């Protein structure tokens, strides 16, 4: 398993501050989902946790050690990141893309191994891409391409997965397949999963821990039933809604209202 935390982190782009002294500790071995309105800092937090952005102040800890003090390969063996808009090299096949996930586990004296091949094959199978493995990534549909990137993340075989909107471009069937896969990796292999989701009902169903972000700070965090209340949804999103209990999964279910309904 792996732990990741942010302590009093402030970060932004040029002179625009996005995260403002944000602190959060993501529970080990659980699925945490970051929610919040557009521009609140969810993706920025994920990039900061993955060491793609350097904090202006504060620090990120990976397994209790300041992440910027760790060697790059050591970080890549502990966490895998799926960014929001990844770009594949021109002409690369699905198998070649997924194989890139094994690079952190190789060295100049120990190149491609049987374990690497097994991890790639399993990642392709888990994401339903085995039959498309020799296709060019640029020939795939948006949903297939997203699954190829998720397969790369799975092949990296790290104890910590960070995913920014992993269900983007996917139809409902493949959204469910991806979330079920991530839940299986969490439950069966103990992987710590941190992801950004916009669908609150899917977040409520699959998350163990919800982190609601507002204006660059953690507004609330806890179990879905604690966080998803009508009052808090209105505070975070400015959205009027009613929360009922999903009759099948016993998780909070958000029924949004339009502007003409009372808060």
From TrEMBL:
State any single GO MF term: ATP binding
The way it spans or sits in the membrane comes to: Peripheral membrane protein
Q: What is its main location?
A: membrane
Q: What is the lineage of its organism?
A: Bacteria, Pseudomonadati, Pseudomonadota, Gammaproteobacteria, Oceanospirillales
Q: What domain of life is recorded for the organism?
A: Bacteria
Task: Give all residue intervals belonging to the ABC transporter domain.
Answer: 4-240
Q: Where in the cell is it found?
A: Cell membrane
Name the chain's protein: ABC transporter ATP-binding protein
Q: Which InterPro entries is this protein grouped with? A: AAA+_ATPase, ABC_transporter-like_ATP-bd, ABC_transporter-like_CS, P-loop_NTPase, Siderophore_ABC-ATPase
Pfam families to which the protein is assigned, alphabetical: ABC_tran
Question: SMART domains recorded for this chain?
Answer: AAA
- Give the keywords, sorted: ATP-binding, Cell membrane, Ion transport, Iron, Iron transport, Membrane, Nucleotide-binding, Transport
Q: Which SUPFAM superfamilies match?
A: P-loop containing nucleoside triphosphate hydrolases
In its keyword annotation, does this UniProt entry include Ion transport?
A: yes
